[in-house]
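Ticket #4471: structure export looks truncated?
Reporter: QA, pipeline team
Priority: medium

Steps to reproduce: submit the single chain below to the structure queue and open the exported record.
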Amino acid sequence: MLMSTQANRYALQLLEARADVRMISPLSAQTKLTTEDGYDIVKSTYDIRTAQGEVMIGRKIGFANRKIWAKYGVEEPISTPIWTPMFDSTVRYTNDNRGIQSLFGALQPRLGPEVVFKLGTTPSPDATIEELAECIEWMAHAFEIVVCPFEGWKFEMVDSIAAFGLHGSLIVGEPKVLSSATRRNLDSMLAYSSLSLSCGDELRSAGFGSDVLGSPLQALWHLHEMLKTQPRFDKLSAGEIITTGTWTDVCPIAPGETWTSAFSGVSLPGLTVSFV
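Actual output as written to the record:
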């Protein structure tokens, strides 16, 4: 476990790099760090950002897609999901599932298509996955812009944890309030659904809900269980929105491009977002 002064120093280093829009060396290249050290830095970052007036509105689950684990990690592949707090300053909602997003200040931006849940009630500490589904008020499709301050997207898992989970911003589509029947079948419904991701007229990637730890609901349950082992963080609570992980590998994006998505197997509308 890092001393609080060390964690604060790394947190400030990452926050300053983001504010200045500049690359830095991975923290793991500066000193040996554990996964728990990464979450110590997350806690310091959370304390600094809330003290500055930002409001945490939920969490981002990263690396929930098992098919992309082998593509990341220098010394060893990523092998487990991570999470990070998500703040009001980085989340916006679309009109009619269409939007325009500036990439100004985004380092090495990439795009990940996700399913987002909003919790309507607070899960009990020992909630089963079925009980967790009953806590969900709505779900929506979203595009997450992920960013990376490490050259060439080369980092270890602890670096991605500390660097805000590589979260840049989140563009959320039209929320769909869930019926009781949908909640009961949510796990399998999402697992058997698919998504396509296109830039202009060119299909760039595709994936299945089952790639996300079995389903996005399974990813949410994994986060719920993970937080039991991290007493320095609050547990999931009513009102939070949770991004559950990309359905495809994250794709490089650039100003001037328009990206669209489409689902099959679940009644969620796709998104169309133009980047400037």
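Status: closed, not a bug. The export was complete when the record was re-opened. Leaving a note from the reviewer for reference: The chain is about 25% helix and 30% strand.
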